[in-house]
From TrEMBL, chain A:
Protein family (similarity comment): Belongs to the actin family.
Pfam families in the record: Actin
InterPro entries named in the record: Actin, ATPase_NBD
Protein's UniProt name: Uncharacterized protein
Lineage: Eukaryota, Fungi, Dikarya, Ascomycota, Pezizomycotina
Disordered: annotated span: 336-384, 488-517, 539-558
Listed Low complexity bias regions: 345-359, 495-517, 542-557
Taxonomy, superkingdom: Eukaryota
Stored SUPFAM superfamilies: Actin-like ATPase domain
Automatic annotation (TrEMBL), chain B:
UniProt record similarity statement: Belongs to the actin family.
Signal peptide span: none
Region (Disordered): 108-132, 248-267
Pfam families for the chain: Actin
Gene3D superfamilies in the record: 3.30.420.40, Actin, Chain A, domain 4
InterPro entries in alphabetical order: Actin, ATPase_NBD
Protein name, UniProt field: Actin 4
C-alpha cells in the first residue's frame, strides 16, 4: 500500500505526479502559468516499491488502516459482477482478537458480502492436506509459526516472537543473511534474492560429524573455465536449449559439406551402368558418416559438460544468471503515428558469450513485464522497450523504458553457508518446543508423525530435509534395548494395584476417550519392537495407519518423526510444491462451506462455520 | 472421539460475555497466564522466569527478556523470577509490570489504536451503515482523559494467592487503574476461581501447583481465611527429589549436558533448563503409589519390582529403566518419612506439610457443620496433580482419614483445565453478565482504595455489592 501524498487514503500502487508530456512539449510559455492542474498527471508505477507501506510485518498487522485499504483493493479487483459472494479470509495466527473484530466489522460494513469465514491458517493448511492430526510449520517472509492440530483442534501454537528483533526466521531473513555474506562482492539485496530463489542456493544435508553439521564441497571441480556449464534457473532454460540445437545445425551443415566434397568419378559410375545402385550405396555411406560424426560431436559435448553435471551441492563455485530490470528515461525522437515500440539498438553480436551481459527483449506486456517468458536471445545485446504508460506523444518525448539485463555471476560457498546452524537450530527448536508443549502426552506422537512445512520461506532447497534430519538426530527417542525384546507389556501400562484390580488402565486414562486406550489390542508384537523396525523404513501407508492406532509405548516423545505425506491427486500442486497449501485449503474450505449443499445433518455445521450477515447484526 | 464440551469451553455467545473483552491475568511462580474472558484457555502463557541480560547502559544494569524463546544461553545472562518462591506472590513489582505489560498489551493487544471513524473507511459512501459512536459527552471526556492509557477499554480481572497481603493488593489496583487506565478491575482468589472452574461455589480446593500446594475451603464463593493451608510440596519440590535421586544413583545422572560451548551459562540458567527435562520426566515416568496404605508398607516395593518399568532417555541418548524409583520420589508428598535426602534444609518437609495433613488441618479449621459438604466437594487442580495416580492416592488417603464420610474428588479430565484451573475460573467469572455489576469501577476506586485493601476485597465478591458507590462500570456498547 502506498500513502497518497494529498489525502490520507492509501493507494494500491506507487503513484507519482509528473508533468504531462504535452505540457512539457508545449514549451516555456505554458510552463510559466502557475496553478494549472492539467499540467500534471498521476502516473501509476506498478513495479516501484518506493515509499511503500507494509501493513503486515512479521505476521502482525502493524498498520490497520493500510491493511483494510488493501483488503478493499483486493476485493474490488475480485468483484467483477453485482453478485455478492461470501468471503473466506485466512487469518494469520499472529492477528489478535481485536484485529479480527475490526476486520470483520470492516468487511461486513464495506462490502455486501453475505457471510464471512475468518480461518486460522493452520486449519487452512489442514484442509489443503487432509490430515486430521498434523503439525503445521509455517515459514513466511519474516515470520515463522508452528501450530499443532490434533483431531482438527488447535492444541498448541508458538511463533517466533514478534517483539524481539534477532529471533526471526523466514525468506527475507535468509536473503539478508546471504547479503551479509556477499556484500563485499558487490551483491545487492535484489541479487541475493534471486540467488536464493535459484536452485544454486540450497541447504546441504545434515551431517552430524562435520563442522557446523554440513559437508561443504572442497575439491575445486569447477576451476576450469566452462562457459556454459551452468545449472540454470528454469526461467532461462529456453535459451540453453536453443543454443546447442543451433550448434548442431551448424555441425550438420559442415558434415554435409564434407560429404559433398568427396569427389565422385561420375564417368565411372555412369559407364558401370548401375548408377542407381551406386547412388543408393553412396547415400547410405554418407548417412552413416554423418551419424558417426554427430555421435562424436555429442560425445565431445557430453565430455565438455561432464563436470557441470556434478550436482550443485558438490561444486565449490557455480554460476548463476542474474536478471535485473532497469528503468531509464530515454529521449525518443518524434514519431508520428508510428508504432510506439521499436527496437532501439540493433542486435549487436558479441563473440564473447561467456561473461557479458545478455539482454532479452521484453515482451510488450503492459505493466507486468515479468508475466510472459521472453523469447530467447542467446548472444548479443538487445534492448527492446516497453512503454507501459507513455502518453500520446506528438513530438520528442521522454519515455520510460524497461530493459532486462542478464549477467552471470560466479558465487562460491556462500550459497550454502547462508543458512547457518543457528537458523536451522532455531527452526528445529521451535518445532520441538511447540509439540512438547501439547498438554496431553497422547497427542504428541500424532503431531510428530505429521509435520508439514508450508509458506514460501520453506521453499529453499533442502531446508525441510535438513530440519527433519536435525530433529531426528537431536530429539528422537530411540527405543530402548532394555525392553525391546524382553518385555511383553508396553511400559506405559499402569501398575496393577495390590488390591487385585488387574485391569490395566492407560497411563493417561484420565484424558483418553474410550476408543483410544493405548493397549495394542490388535497385535501381539511388542510395539517398541515394531517402532524400532518400521520407523526407519518409512513404509508407505504407515502414516495413515499410525494416525490413530499409533503405539504409545513410551510416554516420552518423540519416538518417530516424519513429514506428512503430501497428497498426490492434484498434479499441478504436486509439481509446484505444497508451500501454499494453506491457500489451497482455503479454497477447499470455501467450497465446502459455501458451495456444497450437504445433507440435513450437516447443515448446522455448515452454518456455524462462518458468520453470516444475519448473525452479524 | 471428541472430548465432551466442558463447562469452560461452552461457546462464549451464550454468556453474552463477548460484549466487552475483559482480560484475565493469573500469575503464579512457574507460569503467568493471560487471556480473554470467556475463552477456555489463556491465549498467552509465559514462564514467570525471565532473562536478565547485563546491560550497562540500562538504568538498572540489566535488560529483561520475557518468554521461553528468549531464555537461552548467552553471555552475561541470568534467569530470574519476579514471583516469590515461598509465597507465590509478586516480589519484584517493577519486573512484574514489565511482564504483564508484555503479555497484556503486546501479545494480546486487546485494543489497537483505532483509526478515526472518519478515516477508517467505514463511513464512506452512501450505504455506509456505521452509525455514530454512542458515547455521550461524559464518557468521551473520560476517554480523553484515558486516551494515553493502554487498557482504557478492557476491564481486568487478576487472581491472587489467598494469603496475599493488603499492600500487594493495593499495588495491583494502582497499576491497573493508574498505569493502564483499566475502566474496571477485580482481584479474585485463586481457590475461588478454581472452584468456579469446577462449577462449584463451595468446595475444598486442593491446588497442587509448581511452587506450592495449598488447601483452602471455599464457601459460597468466599474463602474461609482460617482454613488456608500451604506448603512447598509442589512440582519444584518433586523436582528436587528427582535430582536427589539422580545424584544418589549409580552412575550419577546429570540432568542436562555439560555445556559444550565456550559459553558458560550461569547456574540459574542451568537450573531452568534442568527443570524442563525434569518436567518431561515427571510427565512420563513418575507415578504416585495408588494405595491403599503407604508405599513403604512391606511388600509394596517388591510388587512394583516385578512390574515392567518405564524407560526414560536423557538428552545425551542414554536411557534407563525405572521401576521402583519412580514411586519412591513422589512418596514424600504423602509420607514425610519416605522423602529422599534433600540438599538444603528448607526443602525438607515436616509431617504437617504433607498433602493429607494439609487437608486435615484445613478441615479442622472450619466449622464442623461444613465439613461433610466440603469433603463431598473436593476440587483437585494444579499441574502437579496430573501425576499418574495422584487422585487415586488422595482418595485412598482421605477414605482412611475420614472413614464413613462421603469423599468425592472433582478433577478436570482435560490437562489444560487442570493446569489453568484458576485462570479458567477467572475467565468464567469475568465473562458472566452478572459479574459486571461487581467490578470495581475507576471512579469508585479513588475513594475506595484504602478501605478496599483493608477488608473489602478480602471478603469475597458478594460483599462488594455494598461497595458499588457511584454506579458500577457498565460495558459500553460498541459502535458498530
Amino acid at each position: 500500500m502506498f500513502k497518497d501524498p494529498d489525502t490520507d487514503d492509501y493507494l494500491p500502487y506507487h503513484t507519482y505526479k509528473r508533468k504531462k508530456a504535452t505540457a512539457a512539449a508545449n514549451g516555456g510559455g505554458d510552463a510559466a502559468k502557475p496553478e494549472d492542474d492539467d499540467e500534471f498527471e498521476y502516473v501509476e508505477d506498478r513495479d516501484s516499491s518506493e515509499g511503500a507501506i507494509y501493513p503486515i510485518q512479521r505476521g502482525r498487522i502493524v498498520n490497520m488502516a493500510a491493511f483494510l485499504a488493501f483488503l478493499d483493493h483486493v476485493h474490488q479487483l475480485l468483484t467483477t459482477s453485482y453478485h455478492n459472494t461470501p468471503i473466506v479470509l485466512m487469518a494469520s495466527p499472529q492477528w489478535t482478537r481485536g484485529d479480527n473484530e475490526i476486520i470483520a466489522r470492516f468487511i461486513f460494513e464495506k462490502t455486501k458480502t453475505p457471510a464471512l469465514c475468518l480461518m486460522h491458517s493452520a486449519f487452512a493448511a489442514q484442509y489443503g492436506l487432509k490430515w486430521l492430526n498434523m503439525t503445521v510449520v509455517d515459514i513466511g517472509y519474516e515470520k515463522m509459526d508452528v501450530s499443532c492440530v490434533w483431531d482438527s483442534n488447535l492444541v498448541a501454537h508458538r511463533s517466533l516472537d514478534y517483539f524481539t528483533p534477532g529471533l526471526e526466521a523466514g525468506g527475507n531473513v535468509l536473503t539478508k543473511k546471504l547479503h551479509g555474506l556477499l556484500k563485499d562482492k558487490g551483491f545487492t539485496l535484489d541479487m541475493c534474492e534471486q540467488l536464493k530463489k535459484s536452485p544454486l542456493a540450497e541447504v546441504l544435508p545434515y551431517v552430524a560429524t562435520a563442522k557446523n553439521c554440513m559437508e561443504l564441497p572442497d575439491e575445486d571441480v569447477a576451476a576450469e573455465p566452462l562457459a556454459h556449464s551452468v545449472v540454470e534457473a528454469p526461467k532461462i532454460n529456453e535459451s540453453t536449449i536453443a543454443a546447442p540445437s543451433t550448434a548442431g545445425d551448424v555441425e550438420n551443415g559442415v558434415d554435409d559439406k564434407v560429404a559433398d566434397e568427396g569427389v565422385l568419378d561420375v564417368a565411372n559410375i555412369v559407364t558401370s551402368g548401375n548408377t542407381r545402385e551406386f547412388l543408393a550405396k553412396k547415400e547410405k555411406e554418407k548417412a552413416e558418416r554423418a551419424k558417426a560424426k554427430h555421435r562424436k560431436a555429442q560425445e565431445a559435448e557430453a565430455a565438455a559438460n561432464r563436470p557441470a553435471r556434478l550436482p550443485n551441492a558438490k561444486r565449490k563455485t557455480n554460476t548463476f544468471y542474474y536478471e535485473e530490470t532497469v528503468h531509464e528515461d530515454v529521449q525518443v525522437p518524434l514519431s508520428n503515428g508510428a508504432p510506439k515500440v521499436e527496437s532501439m539498438a540493433p542486435p549487436a553480436t558479441n563473440g564473447d558469450a561467456a561473461a557479458t551481459a545478455v539482454a532479452e527483449p521484453t515482451p510488450k506486456v503492459e505493466g507486468d513485464a515479468a508475466a510472459a517468458p521472453a523469447p530467447p536471445a542467446p548472444t548479443g545485446e538487445t534492448a527492446t522497450d516497453v512503454l507501459p504508460f507513455a502518453p500520446e506523444a506528438t513530438s520528442s518525448v521522454t519515455e520510460r523504458r524497461t530493459k532486462r539485463i542478464r549477467k552471470d555471476i560466479e558465487v562460491g560457498l556462500e550459497r550454502f553457508l547462508f543458512v547457518d546452524r543457528e537458523y536451522i537450530d532455531q527452526v528445529a527448536r521451535l518445532i520441538y518446543n511447540t509439540i512438547q508443549s501439547i498438554p496431553e502426552l497422547s497427542k504428541r506422537p500424532d503431531c510428530w508423525n505429521n509435520i508439514v512445512f508450508v509458506g514460501n520461506g520453506s521453499r529453499l532447497r533442502g531446508l525441510k530435509e535438513n530440519v527433519l534430519q536435525t530433529l531426528i538426530s537431536r530429539y528422537l527417542i530411540s527405543p530402548s534395548t532394555a525392553t525391546m525384546f524382553t518385555s511383553e507389556l508396553p511400559s506405559n501400562m499402569a501398575t496393577p494395584t495390590g488390591t487385585g484390580s488387574q485391569t490395566p488402565t492407560g497411563s493417561t486414562s484420565g484424558s483418553l476417550p474410550l476408543g483410544q486406550l493405548p493397549l495394542p489390542t490388535t497385535s501381539s508384537v511388542n510395539p517398541l519392537l515394531q517402532a524400532a523396525t518400521t520407523a526407519s523404513l518409512g513404509v508407505p501407508g504407515t502414516t495413515t495407519a499410525d494416525a490413530h492406532a499409533s503405539h504409545q509405548s513410551h510416554a516420552q516423545t518423540p519416538t518417530s518423526i516424519k513429514l506428512a505425506q503430501l497428497p498426490n491427486y492434484l498434479q499441478d500442486w504436486s509439481k509446484a510444491g505444497y508451500e501454499e497449501a494453506h491457500f489451497l485449503g482455503a479454497l477447499v474450505a470455501g467450497r465446502l462451506v459455501y458451495c456444497v449443499h450437504p445433507g440435513n445433518d450437516m447443515v448446522d455445521a455448515q452454518r456455524l462455520s462462518s458468520l453470516s450477515r444475519v448473525d452479524y447484526k | 472421539m471428541a472430548q465432551p464440551l466442558t463447562t469452560a469451553s461452552v461457546p462464549t455467545d451464550i454468556y453474552g460475555g463477548d460484549e466487552v473483552s475483559a482480560l484475565v491475568l493469573d500469575a503464579g511462580y512457574c507460569q503467568t497466564r493471560a487471556g480473554f474472558a470467556g475463552e477456555d484457555v489463556p491465549k498467552s502463557v509465559l514462564p514467570s522466569f525471565y532473562g536478565a541480560i547485563k546491560d550497562t547502559s540500562a538504568a538498572s544494569g540489566s535488560r529483561n527478556v520475557f518468554g521461553e524463546d528468549f531464555i537461552y544461553a548467552r553471555p552475561d545472562f541470568e534467569v530470574k523470577n519476579y514471583m516469590s518462591r515461598t509465597e507465590s506472590v509478586v516480589e519484584d513489582w517493577d519486573t512484574a509490570v514489565q511482564v504483564w505489560e508484555s503479555m497484556l498489551l503486546e501479545r494480546l493487544q486487546p485494543e489497537r489504536r483505532q483509526t478515526q471513524p472518519s478515516k477508517n473507511g467505514l463511513n464512506d459512501g452512501a450505504d455506509g451503515e456505521g452509525d455514530v459512536s454512542m458515547e455521550d459527552a461524559a464518557t468521551s471526556a473520560e476517554n480523553a482523559e484515558n486516551a494515553e492509557k493502554p487498557l482504557a477499554e478492557s476491564p481486568l480481572l487478576m487472581t491472587e494467592a489467598p494469603w496475599n497481603q493488603g499492600k500487594a493488593r493495593e499495588k495491583a489496583i494502582e497499576i491497573a487503574m493508574e498505569n493502564w487506565g483499566c475502566p474496571a478491575f477485580w482481584l479474585s482468589r485463586t481457590p475461588v476461581c478454581a472452584a468456579f472452574a469446577a462449577g462449584k461455589a463451595s468446595a475444598l480446593v486442593v491446588d497442587v501447583g509448581g511452587a506450592n500446594t495449598s488447601v483452602t475451603a471455599v464457601h459460597d464463593g468466599m474463602i474461609l481465611k482460617r482454613s488456608i493451608q500451604k506448603s512447598h510440596v509442589g512440582g519444584l519440590w518433586l523436582s528436587s527429589q528427582i535430582r536427589s535421586m539422580f545424584d544418589s544413583s549409580d552412575p550419577k545422572i546429570e540432568p542436562s549436558h555439560p555445556p559444550q560451548t565456550q559459553l558458560r551459562p550461569p547456574s540459574s540458567y542451568r537450573a531452568y533448563e534442568d527443570e524442563r527435562l525434569l518436567t518431561e520426566y515427571k510427565e512420563s515416568v513418575v507415578e504416585v503409589w495408588r494405595g491403599p496404605g503407604r508405599y513403604s508398607n512391606p511388600g509394596n516395593e517388591d510388587l512394583v519390582k516385578t512390574q515392567p518399568g518405564r524407560i526414560f532417555e536423557m538428552p545425551d541418548g542414554s536411557n534407563q529403566m525405572w521401576r521402583e524409583q519412580r514411586f519412591r520420589v513422589s512418596e514424600g508428598m504423602w509420607d514425610e518419612t519416605a522423602q529422599l535426602p534433600t540438599a538444603s534444609e528448607e526443602e525438607r518437609i515436616t509431617k504437617a506439610q504433607t498433602v493429607p495433613e494439609l487437608i486435615r488441618a484445613c478441615l479442622n479449621a472450619v466449622d464442623v457443620d461444613l465439613r461433610p459438604n466440603l469433603l463431598g466437594n473436593i476440587v483437585v487442580t494444579g499441574g502437579t496433580s496430573l501425576l499418574n495416580g495422584f487422585n487415586d492416592r488422595l482418595n485412598n488417603e482421605l477414605m482412611g482419614m475420614y472413614p464413613g464420610m462421603r469423599v468425592k474428588l472433582h478433577a478436570a479430565g482435560l490437562t489444560t483445565e487442570r493446569r489453568f484451573g484458576s485462570w479458567i475460573g477467572g475467565s468464567i467469572l469475568a465473562s458472566l453478565g452478572t459479574f459486571h455489576q461487581m467490578w470495581i469501577s475507576k471512579r469508585s476506586t479513588t475513594r475506595m482504595v484504602p478501605a478496599l485493601s483493608r477488608n473489602a476485597a478480602s471478603k469475597g465478591f458478594l460483599k462488594s455489592w455494598r461497595l458499588r458507590i457511584d454506579g458500577a462500570w457498565t460495558p459500553k456498547k460498541k459502535s458498530r
